[in-house]
Amino acid sequence: MTGADGGGGRRATAGRGSRALAKARGAAPGLRTFSGYRRQWLVKDLVAGVVLTTLLVPQGMAYAELAGLPAINGLYTSVLCLLAYAVLGPSRILVLGPDSSLGPMIAATVLPLAAAGGDSGRAVALASVLALLVGAVMVLASVAKLGFIADLISKPTMIGYMNGLALTILIGQLPKLCGFSTDADGLLGETSGFVRGLADGKAVPAAVAVGVGGVVLILVLQRWLPKVPAVLVMVLLAMAATPLFDLAARGVGLVGTLPTGFPPLTVPHLAWDDLAPLCAGAVGIALVSLADTISNASAFAARTGQEVQGNQEMRAIGAANLAAGLFQGFPVSTSGSRTAVAERAGARTQLTGVVGAVLIVVMLVLFPGLFRSLPQPALAAVVITAALSLADLTGAARLWQRRRTEFLLSVAAFLGVALLGVLPGIAVAVGLSILNVFRRAWWPYNTVLGRVPGLEGYHDVRSYPEAERLPGLVIHRFDAPLFFANAKAFRDEVLRLTHGEPPPRWVLVAAEPVTDVDTTAADVLEELRKALEARHIRLVFAELKDPVLAGLRRYGLTRSFGGDRFFPTVESAVTAFRAGTDAVWTAAGPPSGPGTDGDPPRADRA
């Protein structure tokens, strides 16, 4: 008996252990990947990790300085976020790290708070707190399954935001590219400061040669030899040029020897007065990081046959930010360019990122002076080329050709970043996206329908001017839910359609696109019914969705209108109208309705 009990206990313990292991693998997808690791992947992951490191180091240092922080903190950040994502990230090859799109947002949040003390240590502490806050926002969003928040920024406004961000980064790096600095703030101030610096002769010719040459070299290699690590080649050539041309003596700033070793676990100090602005910055950074992560994850998942797991991605990015924040790091995001490099180098799993992190630590511990002769203008060249990759002028041109209103939204987002700053710019972008959604529901497309010989159904008379109509019947389609904001616009349009001579006997609403009717709209429909009946005009509906019709019943409209006002199809309503009249289909003149008289339809304007 004891033996049997002991066996059952062991089986129960084993069962609990296997369930715990399965639960751990579900919470940490990286463990699941490594538990099923294949030997043939090892060489490819190791090689890809070495190749990736050649990009991680210069970009990490450059993006740290873009964020207004010491270059070394970019390397600390890279190590921690790569290790955290390797354990918790659902994607096998997505690469995290300091990002060019987040750098200006971090600087805009941290530097005003750190400026009073002028202490780089305080800036690092604030940036670490910012990373912790971003991580907390991302983790909480994943728990609440709020991945859809990334959709708050529409493509046109994101294009404008990124174009404005690219210009802001470019202008901000030009003084460093030319070997001097400015105290200006904002795009206009930095532009003016750069022009004044050039006019005052502050530019260092050797720095200009290194910086401009670095930009040109990277762009040429990326264009004509995409498999060559352009950033690494430029960095190595710049470092070789330092002793060869004695750049330090010619006034070119160098990175110098980095601090040795790796920082200990550090809980950054925070003054309560700094919490509100840091929280505001964290929300904006989390939103941009989330949108960037989802888009990159979707693109690379499609190539590798994986599915995007938005909430797991948020949790993993949040954990990466928390890890970076505890080791003097700053907020991170996914990187499309670094992920593409890892993919081209043959990466199979997140071991590639682990190899990159280990190599950075080895460099910090054993070879801290490896990049001491790297010119500062070379780092500016790295940032400028990254900024150019953020810009999407082709996308803006497509918006101009396809939809002018969305092009104007893109321009407004661009101006928000350029004139107001990076953080207000993201608020402008989100606000414009939300307003655009509301605008489309507020002023939806609506039209009159007619019968087109040879085509089934009833069609927009703007698209088919030759469409036939029935005298005495107006078939009106309203392409939106009816709610408080557009109900009066619907009423006014219906009334306008009845002002002809003679007035119609029926106004038939082809209501299939109407997905909802709220209480305000219900009251407006009742008022409209009374106004039309006073003129002996019947308002009838066809193709109402069942939930919408059920709502009208709750509002009492089916009783006040009468059951004979609701038809299952437009055809059945037309048949009922013709049964009570002698109307025959006739060719129409110029279509009436909004958007005629030479104006484009409202949908085109939208």
From TrEMBL:
SUPFAM superfamilies reported for this sequence: SpoIIaa-like (SSF52091)
Main subcellular location: membrane
Entry superkingdom: Bacteria
Membrane topology field: Multi-pass membrane protein
Pfam families: STAS, Sulfate_transp
Amino acid composition bias (Low complexity), ranges on this chain: 11-20
Bias kind Gly residues: ranges: 1-10
Positions of the STAS domain: 463-577
Region (Disordered): 1-21, 584-606
Intracellular or extracellular location(s): Membrane
Membrane spanning residue stretches: 41-61, 67-88, 100-118, 124-148, 160-182, 202-221, 228-255, 275-294, 351-371, 377-400, 407-435
PROSITE patterns: STAS (PS50801)
InterPro entries: SLC26A/SulP_dom (IPR011547), SLC26A/SulP_fam (IPR001902), STAS_dom (IPR002645), STAS_dom_sf (IPR036513)
Keywords associated with the record: Membrane, Transmembrane, Transmembrane helix
Matches recorded under NCBIfam families: sulP
Alphabetized PANTHER family for the sequence: SULFATE TRANSPORTER
Name the UniProt record assigns to this protein: Sulfate permease
Organism (species): Streptomyces chrestomyceticus
Gene, per the UniProt record: sulP
